[in-house]
Amino acid sequence: MFGYEPEGWRINRVENRAALHSPAALERAKQTGQILEGRAVLCDSRHNLMVDLGCMQGMIPREEGALGIREGTVRDIALLSRVNRPVCFTVTGFSGEGSNSTALLSRRAAQEACWQNYLSHLVPGDVLDARVTHLESFGAFADIGCGVVALMPIDTISVSRIDHPRERFSTGMDIRAVVRSIEGRRVTLTQRELLGTWEENAAHFHSGETVGGIIRSVEPYGIFVELAPNLAGLAECRENVSSSQQASVYIKSILPARMKVKLVIIDTFENTQKPKPPHYYFTDSHMDRFLYSPPTCSRVIETVFTEKNE
Question: For 14-117, CATH number?
Fold first, then answer.
């Protein structure tokens, strides 16, 4: 929703720059409760964030730095990690006079407004914009509005399995995500449903072609090779092949009824590719269900979203 996007989206907008242009403009923003954005330039010894507003200095007191800081449910690293990055806020007041004037800001208030007016209305299946904030072995964390962070577990990032989210994402990458579940104020995300069905992905490949892929796992019965984030094929066993290598593979056959792609590995080499922005097949704002498997396949892989928020 416009006005509640991930941090960094509004900092260069005309209306944001105009509100930071002068003390009078900041006062008007205070009166209207407008959510603004500036760059945090310092976190002092008391963990107050100093923000460059252009016309004056701004300060976000520690307890106003994020939802959960005051209650102790969010650690102060959430504040320290914002230095040299955009932060959203509302203006709550001013202290000092003239050149010594400081605008008092609240990131917490901006996040609370985002939750009350936007995030609390989300239901499973809603599709939203997000920005990757950091990566862990178990999943990717993403800003879904005004610095409010949600988790995308590693097994929901794509149908093709990966060892670490850094194989798909980089910090700061803008992505789309589906709301998987909401428990209280904890939002869990998924992306695999946006990356296309088996048939949509397989349509880009044809028998007899030699294409690029990534080795995902080496098993006694064969080698799984990713052709796209939501499509993998099985190659015959071959020596000196290891997971995460790039590969050139020959496509022997594509079998929709069995949801299989049979491959032959031509060559393998070290993977030096950096994550690319995802390609999304689904572009609407909500989905009720996602059927990955082809209609002719007896094996059904499906996601059904329910609107029950716990």
Answer: 2.40.50.140
Q: End-to-end alpha-carbon separation of the chain, Å? A: 23
Distance CA 193, CA 190 (A): 7
Query: Tens digit of pLDDT for each residue in 189-239?
Result: 999 999 999 999 999 999 999 999 999 999 999 999 999 999 999 999 999
- HEC string of 268-303 equals EECCCCCCCCCCCCCCCCECCEEECCCCCCCCCCEE
Domain span(s) for CATH 2.40.50.140 in the chain: 14-117, 122-195+283-304, 198-269
CATH T-level fold of 198-269: OB fold (Dihydrolipoamide Acetyltransferase, E2P) (2.40.50)
Q: How far apart are CA 105 and CA 277, in angstroms?
A: 34
**Residues ≥6 apart with Cβ < 8 Å to 193:** 178, 282, 287, 290, 303
310: Cβ contacts below 8 Å, ≥ 6 apart: 181, 182, 183, 184
Q: pTM (2 decimals)?
A: 0.92
Output the six-digit token pair for 191.
Answer: 């992306």
Q: Which CATH architecture has domain 122-195+283-304?
A: Beta Barrel (2.40)
- Give the CA count within 13 Å in the CB-facing half-sphere of 270: 1
